[in-house]
Amino acid sequence: MEHTYLAELYEQYVCNLLESLRDQRRALLALILAKTEQQQRLQNFMSELHRQRFLSLTLTEADDPFTFAKLLQIACEGWLLPQDPEAKRNVELLVMEQFLTGLPDQTDDWIRCQQPATLVKAAH
């Protein structure tokens, strides 16, 4: 009888322990999910700030065309976060277009006629 009583106590202890572990696992998963969602919201917020900066940046805010191009590049990369080489090339093309759009019309026309291969060449 005492052996049965001890076995029942042990079984109850193990069941309680397992339930406690399940509760802790659920709580931990909820925290991980909340942190992931918070990180995603922060990333989205930062991306939007970079997008707004990219679209609103003007040549007058930079000291020179090279700085203007570099600031556009930083903002666009912060916005789109390119990973692979093709995405990086698309970012460079987007930055080039925004760079040329931000220049005075005569300068824009002259650079387009030169057909520079890179943003750095266009900025110099």
UniProtKB/TrEMBL annotation:
Top-level lineage group: Eukaryota
PROSITE patterns (alphabetical): SCAN_BOX
Annotated ranges, domain SCAN box: 51-118
InterPro entries: SCAN_dom, SCAN_sf
Protein name according to UniProt: SCAN box domain-containing protein
